[in-house]
Design brief:
α5 links the parallel β4 and β5. The termini are far apart. The protein is globular, with a radius of gyration of 25 Å. The strands form two sheets. Strands 3, 4, 5, 6, 7, 8, 9 and 10 form an eight-stranded mixed β-sheet that branches. The chain has a two-stranded antiparallel ribbon with strand order 1-2. α6 packs across α8 and α7 packs across α10. The protein is of the alpha/beta class.
């Protein structure tokens, strides 16, 4: 038996014994699809996906608290301010007044600061950092409450929340399927889950520079940048948790810096430093200088009109909206109820010109008036 055949057999045998299909593994490497069909429990995201502990939550809480106490923190929070505004703008697209909203991982209220009383009557800000909550800004006229709460241990009564928003916070959660399940549980029927996280394309330039520098000098790479989730994972989790009317989209925000040193400085100042359990204890000065030189060589750009040179940093943002099921929500027509076949698409213009007379009932006439 050849070496490649032995390897394929070993991999297949490994996954078979654990009831996990290798083709079903999510791309971020820490959420897996459970293939056991013997359970009769209600389908939830936790019953479909398993989890692995990837992030050091205690280290992340300390990083956020240290960042919150920095006097120059406001100079590095530009990306959170921008995405917080974009998330709030999506809330305004929902023509409804939410009586009880929650901002999870609120930080300094990056979403809540834009709320208006005609869109949100009351909001509860939740974060692990008391310092951040003390400095949080809330929109004028909006009632609010501040609660120290870990995103992994969301604790609200069942069917109690109309709107749950989160901006750039859930990418540090280990048990993301459980988080989605808890959000579904606390939302009222027809409640909205609207959030954004950093995606897998975030800081791709910095990661590539570090990997190349470390490969040249040490013959291998270490996870200097924490892993991120992917858009396919978010769609799967929304479906598994039971959300309807889902919308998932991706956008990229590019910020230019004088050098890679400024990129790393702002990432640390924001409390977004590496918190993976497998992270190396430190990043040597030699490796930092090598990565900075590679970063500038691969991505640097001159700006003659300004007489300067800069490097880009890409932040990929995954946005999503999910609704808790309710009978009033739009639903697809029954299977087989279509009146036009797809094979007649070439006759679409002819079909739309056809007219038919239908009889209106009293209720129809009243609705028209």
């Amino acid at each position: 038996m050849s070496q490649s055949a032995i390897f394929k057999y070993s991999v297949k045998n490994y996954f078979t014994k654990r009831l996990i299909s290798p083709s079903k593994c999510l791309r971020n490497g820490y959420v897996f699809r459970n293939q056991s069909s013997k359970s009769t429990k209600t389908k939830t995201a936790s019953s479909v996906y398993g989890t692995m502990k990837i992030f050091d939550r205690n280290a992340k809480i300390l990083q956020k608290e240290r960042a919150a106490q920095r006097e120059d923190y406001h100079l590095a929070e530009y990306i959170k301010e921008e995405i917080g505004w974009r998330t709030a703008d999506r809330v305004f697209d929902v023509k409804r007044t939410f009586k009880n909203a929650v901002e999870l991982g609120a930080g300094r209220g990056y979403v809540s600061r834009h709320f208006l009383p005609d869109s949100v009557e009351k909001v509860t800000l939740c974060d692990t950092s008391q310092t951040h909550l003390d400095k949080a800004i809330i929109g004028d006229g909006v009632k609010y409450e501040k609660v120290v709460m870990d995103e992994e241990n969301l604790d609200f009564p069942e069917d109690s929340v109309d709107l749950l928003v989160s901006s750039l916070a859930l990418h540090w959660v280990n048990d993301l399927p459980g988080c989605f399940d808890r959000v579904m549980r606390c939302l009222k029927p027809d409640g909205v889950f609207l959030a954004s996280v950093f995606g897998g394309g975030t800081l791709v330039e910095l990661r590539q520079a570090l990997q190349l520098a470390e490969t040249e000098r040490r013959g291998g790479v270490a996870p200097h940048v924490s892993p991120f989730t992917h858009v396919q994972d978010i769609g799967g989790l929304l479906t598994a948790a039971g959300f309807t009317l889902q919308t998932v989209d991706v956008e990229a925000v590019t910020v230019w810096f004088p050098s890679s040193w400024h990129v790393m400085r702002d990432v640390r100042a924001l409390g977004e430093g590496n918190a993976a359990l497998a992270r190396p204890p430190h990043l040597s000065r030699e490796l930092q200088f090598a990565a900075a030189a590679l970063y500038d060589e691969m991505y640097g750009k001159d700006f003659p009109e300004r007489g300067s040179r800069g490097v880009p940093a890409t932040f990929q943002i995954i946005n999503w909206v999910g609704w808790k099921p309710h009978p009033s929500q739009p639903a697809p027509l029954p299977r087989g109820s279509g009146e036009v076949s797809l094979k007649d698409l070439h006759r679409l213009e002819e079909i739309t010109k056809q007219t038919h007379k239908i009889q209106l009932h009293t209720d129809d006439v009243n609705n028209i008036k």
